[in-house]
């Protein structure tokens, strides 16, 4: 039987889930701020951020994979100092490496859509809507992994969709496209010079939920059906991501005051942009660990915890207004997520009674 991996004396599975919840909340806040705190003419390129994310994540995974290869006694004791590099090269360019091209493209699309969504929605509404990932993940788990869902889980999914719907309707009604000047009356509050378009934001978040569900389930399928190392899989994923991530950069119009290719790409790339990329890289690595040692469904549960965190932070940082329908919608989403994650046979009796009656 496999030994459960531990970190700081706690099961890695739970440490990574809690870390992912905090990372998710931090990402949506920092990413939102990085997009709306500067006028559009001085904002950084999301395509550059997506590319940088893949380069950094791939490089970190490569170093971890290399350290692991060199810790194998056969390689460690070898007289050839390049034995590990050669072995890793063969593992990365293995016959089945092409399998990672599918989630790679999906994740690049998802990461780009996330920028569109977060630039056009309040943080809390984005987080709640992004919970629809649970629905798409469940649907793809049923279709691709042949998982069976209990009737409680299906009911939970319906409630999830209902809750997201309530939040979306109230956000669209209260955030009409306009130049939002929130918080200008407060010294510490950010000044938004940004035009938000909630419909565009919801369109992007819905599409991102589809790519998230499909990519996550596909990655789980590849990881669990082969013996290849997680970090090698991550390197393969990043390598395949480079092509779709580079395309929008290569086809971007050259600015009139061009200062050269690299300087153009990273134009206006300030501290907040770097922080966004840093949190994204960290999240990508933690997500991979969660998918490997836990599963996609528990991942959904972790991210729903992050709703509460980002909701509280939005109230403090962005003076987000709490409306009764927002509270109703997000409570429905949280309750649905909790219901969905009840272990089989331990569903709350009130729910099983309702279903069976
Ligand atoms: O929202 P979701 O949990 O689907 O997001 C997954 C995120 O994790 C994506 O941004 C994706 O790029 C990243 N990821 C990764 N490496 C993996 C799996 C996911 O970077 N092996």
TrEMBL record:
The chain crosses the membrane at residues 154-173, 201-219, 231-251, 271-291, 298-320. It is found in: Membrane. GO terms for cellular component: Golgi membrane. It is a multi-pass membrane protein. Keywords: Membrane, Transmembrane, Transmembrane helix. It comes from the Eukaryota. The keyword Acetylation does not apply. GO terms for molecular function: pyrimidine nucleotide-sugar transmembrane transporter activity. This is UDP-galactose transporter. It comes from Jaapia argillacea MUCL 33604.
């Amino acid at each position: 039987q496999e030994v459960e991996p531990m970190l700081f004396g706690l099961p890695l599975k739970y440490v990574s889930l809690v870390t992912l919840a905090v990372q998710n909340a931090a990402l949506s806040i920092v990413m939102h701020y990085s997009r709306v705190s500067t006028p559009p003419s001085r904002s950084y390129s999301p395509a550059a951020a997506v590319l940088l994310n893949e380069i950094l994540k791939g490089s970190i995974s490569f170093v971890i994979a290399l350290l692991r290869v060199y810790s194998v006694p056969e390689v460690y004791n070898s007289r050839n100092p390049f034995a590990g590099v050669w072995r890793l090269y063969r593992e990365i360019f293995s016959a089945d490496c092409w399998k990672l091209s599918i989630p790679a493209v999906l994740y690049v699309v998802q990461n780009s859509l996330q920028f569109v969504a977060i630039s056009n929605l309040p943080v809390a509404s984005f987080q709640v809507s992004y919970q629809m990932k649970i629905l798409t993940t469940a649907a793809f788990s049923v279709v691709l992994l042949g998982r069976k869902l209990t009737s409680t889980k299906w009911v939970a999914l319906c409630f999830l969709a209902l809750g997201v719907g309530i939040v979306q309707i109230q956000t669209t009604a209260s955030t009409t496209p306009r130049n939002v000047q929130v918080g200008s009356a407060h010294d510490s509050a950010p000044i938004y010079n940004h035009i938000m378009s909630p419909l565009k934001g919801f369109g992007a978040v819905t599409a991102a939920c589809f790519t998230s569900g499909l990519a996550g389930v596909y990655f789980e399928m590849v990881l669990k059906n082969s013996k290849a190392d997680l970090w090698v899989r991550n390197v393969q994923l990043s390598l395949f991501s480079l092509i779709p991530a580079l395309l929008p950069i290569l086809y971007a119009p050259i600015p009139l005051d061009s200062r050269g290719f690299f300087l153009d790409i990273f134009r206006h790339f300030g501290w907040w942009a770097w922080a966004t990329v840093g949190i994204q890289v960290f999240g990508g690595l933690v997500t991979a660990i969660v998918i490997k040692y836990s599963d996609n469904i528990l991942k959904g549960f972790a991210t729903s915890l992050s709703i509460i965190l980002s909701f509280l932070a939005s109230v403090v940082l962005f003076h987000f207004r709490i409306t009764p329908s927002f509270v109703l919608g997000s409570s429905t989403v949280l309750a649905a997520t909790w219901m969905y994650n009840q272990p089989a046979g331990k569903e709350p009796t009130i729910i099983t009674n309702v279903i069976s009656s």
